[in-house]
Every structure is written in structure tokens, then in C-alpha cells.
């Protein structure tokens, strides 16, 4: 059995690392193919090292380009690769352009595909990620869902996969594995910040950062909050600050994209998280921190329903009100809800589901 994991961006590396390790523990051949959608060292290869992934078997190096250029270059590169070395199954994690392109390349070369993190929905079709995740679900043979709600979504949409399995969230596996080192890293202390007295922020979604009005409004609102804010700035956001001539408030400290362990360490030391990232919403939740989501929708409605996060959009008044309301959010109230995303052993369930799928596919062929 040969499994190929296709990844290319920061969150895909975090989702895939424990899955790779689980396949190797079972002595199953597993290779990593890196699309290179994220090409800066800080956004890609640094995470291979931190999360103990081997060098990729192939690097497509697609690099910068418009979404359609990236998607088509990845389809072409993977198509050629799959024609030459046919994996029994490919795993495509998340909702990025790389994830969708991997699904299309599999469909065109007859390689079965498993979508890892299947079924989450924000309902917002303006987001590239929503389109990607819906299309990829429909292209996939095996749907590996992180929560019960995700299973319900694919059932409701009548997605015609061969198998749908609630495995839990493999990002939670990664977090648990590295949480002790994250706790010890305490990067806030190195910045002269006291635990529980700062906010940690990230922003990178095209709908926020490519829109000068939305970006200005968030920056202004955050600049008015009564606490220091550490802002880990994605390269896309750095470029927009420059393009739009925006400067952060006095209380905001902008830092380069942080390594994974330090990111978790920042969240652990923070009072709250402000973000438009899907992954960071979950990490804040698992680490018992409230978050303000600077969007109107989220694909992780479970976290909002558990009372751990508030959808505040980009309106400064809602951000200020959200901040005031976040004071009342207590981790104890949502701690028990963490199990929504499984028990931190999702990767083993992924391996079991893939083995089960391939056994059944083999029997069906006989
Ligand atoms: C992508 C994913 C998003 C994921 C995020 C994590 C899509 C549609 N979006 O968004 O779901 O949450 O990654 O970070 O796939 N850039 C650099 N250096 C890099 C990578 C990107 O400078 O290493 C620049 C690109 O040239 C581009 C911009 O950042 O101008 C956006 O990159 P892109 O990969 O299109 O999307 P992300 O915003 O990173």
C-alpha cells in the first residue's frame, strides 16, 4: 500500500504531520508531495522541521501566481507525477488551492482521494476556501470529517463518497504532541509581556486584508483596545499594509510569521485571540482562550455555539463590544466541549479509515 499526502501551505503541514507519523508507525509506505503554494521558508519548510516531517518526495515549487495559475500548475505537476508513480490513495488536507488542485489531479488520473477535514462549511461562497472544500468533498472517495457536524453537512448535501468517517481533528493531535514545548517556549515573556495580559492576533483572509476599508477598520479597532496586541503578520498582509499605507496602533507589535510551537506558546500566554484563521480559532479553543473572529461566518460554528468565540466581523464597534464581552468568557465553561474534535488520536483513525477503504475497494474489484 502506498499513500501520498499532498500539501503546500502552513496549515496543511500541521494537519498532515501526525497522519504521516501514524502511517509510518504501521510501516505503511507514505510519501509527502509539496506543491510549494507557500514558498517562503517561514511559511513552509520551517514547519517540516518543527513537526518532524521528512523532506518531500517531490516538490512542485509552484510559487507565487494568481489562484488559477497556482491551481493549474499543481494539477499539471501532480497529474504527471501520478501517471508515473500511482499511489493507492492520495490524502488532501484542508481547503486551500493546493487541496482542490490535488483533488482534480486525482480525478483526472484515476487515483482515489481522501479529503482530510471534510465537511466543514462557512456557507460563505465569497471565500475561496469554501468553494475549495465543497468541490474537494465532491471529488473525494473517502471523507475524513473532524466533527459530527461535518458528517451531517456532507450527508445533508448528498455528497456521493464511498465512505464518510468521523475521525476527529488531526490539528488537535499536533497540538497535544507539542503543547509542553509550547508552554515552555513562553515567547510573550521575551517580548516583555505578562501572561494573560495581551492579545495575540493574525489576519490573512483575502476578504479582509485585500479590502483596504476592511483592513483599516480592523487595524483601527484593535489599535483602540486597552491591552498590548502581538500581531503575527502573514506575507500577504505585510504586502497589503505597504500597498495601502496602513500603520498599526501604538499598542500593536507586529512580528514575522512565528514557528508553530511559538504560535501555540503565544496563545497559551494570551488573554484572548483575534483572528480570521480557521486553524487558530480551533487552537485558541483547545487551549482555553476566547477568540474574536473578524469574519461574519465561520466553518467552525461548533466553537461559537460552545460560547468560546464571537463573530465580530470588521466593524470597529462590534470588535470593541466583542472585546468587552470576551471578559466574561471562562475556559471552564467550554473545556468539556473540546471533545467535539475527538480525543487527539485522529491520525490513527485516519489510518484505520484508509486501510478499511482500500480493503473494500480491493474486494469490490475482485
Ligand atoms: C492560504 C489558504 C488559506 C490558509 C492560508 C494559511 C488558499 C485559497 N488559501 O492563504 O486557506 O488558511 O494559506 O496561511 O489556498 N505569499 C508569500 N509567501 C508565502 C506564501 C504566500 O509571500 O510563503 C504571498 C503570495 O504571493 C500571495 C499571498 O501571500 O500574494 C497569498 O498567498 P496564498 O497562498 O494565495 O494564500 P494565503 O493567503 O496564504
Structural write-up:
The protein has 17 helices and 13 strands. The relative contact order is 0.12. Strand 12, helix 14 and strand 13 (309-311) form a beta-alpha-beta unit. The longest helix is centred in the C-terminal third of the chain and has 20 residues, at 346-365. The mean pLDDT is 96. It is α/β, with parallel strands linked by helices. Helices cover 49% and strands 14% of the residues. The strands form two sheets. The chain has a seven-stranded parallel sheet, sandwiched between helices. The protein has a six-stranded parallel sheet with strand order 10-9-8-11-12-13, sandwiched between helices. It binds uridine-diphosphate-N-acetylglucosamine.
Secondary structure layout plus pairing:
Layout: E1 2-7, H1 10-25, E2 29-34, H2 45-50, E3 58-59, H3 67-84, E4 89-93, H4 97-109, E5 113-116, H5 128-139, E6 142-145, H6 148-156, E7 163-166, H7 170-185, H8 187-190, E8 199-202, H9 206-209, H10 212-223, E9 229-232, H11 235-244, E10 252-255, H12 260-269, E11 272-275, H13 278-286, E12 291-293, H14 301-305, E13 309-311, H15 316-326, H16 331-334, H17 346-365
Parallel strand pairs: 1-2, 1-4, 2-3, 4-5, 5-6, 6-7, 8-9, 8-11, 9-10, 11-12, 12-13
Bound molecules: uridine-diphosphate-N-acetylglucosamine.
Residues 9-11, 37-40, 43, 64, 95-97, 128-129, 204, 234-236, 277 line the site of uridine-diphosphate-N-acetylglucosamine.
Amino acid at each position: 500500500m502506498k499513500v501520498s499526502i499532498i500539501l503546500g501551505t502552513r496549515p496543511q503541514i500541521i494537519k498532515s504531520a501526525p497522519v504521516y507519523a501514524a502511517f509510518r508507525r504501521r510501516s505503511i509506505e507514505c510519501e509527502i508531495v509539496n506543491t510549494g503554494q507557500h514558498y517562503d521558508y517561514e511559511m513552509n519548510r520551517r514547519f517540516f522541521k518543527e513537526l518532524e516531517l521528512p523532506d518531500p518526495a517531490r516538490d512542485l515549487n509552484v510559487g507565487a501566481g494568481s489562484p488559477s495559475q497556482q491551481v493549474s500548475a499543481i494539477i499539471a505537476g501532480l497529474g504527471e507525477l501520478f501517471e508515473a508513480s500511482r499511489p493507492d490513495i492520495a490524502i488532501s488536507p484542508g481547503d486551500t488551492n493546493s487541496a482542490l488542485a490535488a483533488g482534480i489531479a486525482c480525478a483526472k488520473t484515476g487515483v482515489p482521494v481522501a479529503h482530510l477535514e471534510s465537511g466543514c462549511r462557512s456557507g460563505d461562497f465569497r471565500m475561496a476556501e469554501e468553494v475549495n472544500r465543497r468541490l474537494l468533498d465532491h471529488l473525494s472517495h473517502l471523507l475524513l470529517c473532524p466533527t459530527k457536524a461535518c458528517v451531517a453537512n456532507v450527508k445533508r448535501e448528498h455528497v456521493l463518497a464511498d465512505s464518510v468517517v468521523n475521525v476527529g481533528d488531526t490539528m488537535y493531535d499536533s497540538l497535544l504532541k507539542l503543547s509542553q514545548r509550547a508552554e515552555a517556549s513562553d515567547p510573550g515573556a521575551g517580548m516583555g509581556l505578562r501572561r494573560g495580559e495581551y492579545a495575540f492576533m493574525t489576519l490573512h483572509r483575502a476578504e479582509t486584508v485585500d479590502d483596504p476599508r476592511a483592513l483599516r477598520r480592523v487595524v483601527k479597532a484593535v489599535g483602540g483596545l486597552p491591552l498590548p496586541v502581538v500581531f503575527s503578520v502573514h506575507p500577504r498582509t505585510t504586502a497589503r499594509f505597504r500597498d495601502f499605507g496602513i500603520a498599526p496602533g501604538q499598542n500593536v507589535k507586529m512580528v514575522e510569521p512565528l514557528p508553530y510551537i511559538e504560535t501555540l506558546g503565544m496563545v497559551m500566554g494570551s488573554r484572548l485571540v483575534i483572528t480570521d484563521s480557521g486553524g487558530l480559532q480551533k487552537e485558541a479553543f483547545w487551549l482555553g482562550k476566547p477568540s474574536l473572529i473578524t469574519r461574519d461566518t465561520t466553518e467552525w460554528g461548533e466553537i461559537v455555539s460552545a460560547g468560546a468565540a464571537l463573530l465580530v466581523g470588521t466593524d470597529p464597534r462590534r470588535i470593541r463590544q466583542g472585546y468587552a464581552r470576551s471578559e466574561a468568557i471562562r475556559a471552564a465553561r467550554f473545556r468539556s466541549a473540546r471533545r467535539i474534535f475527538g480525543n487527539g488520536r485522529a491520525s490513527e483513525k485516519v489510518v484505520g479509515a484508509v486501510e478499511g477503504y482500500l480493503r473494500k475497494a480491493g474486494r469490490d474489484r475482485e
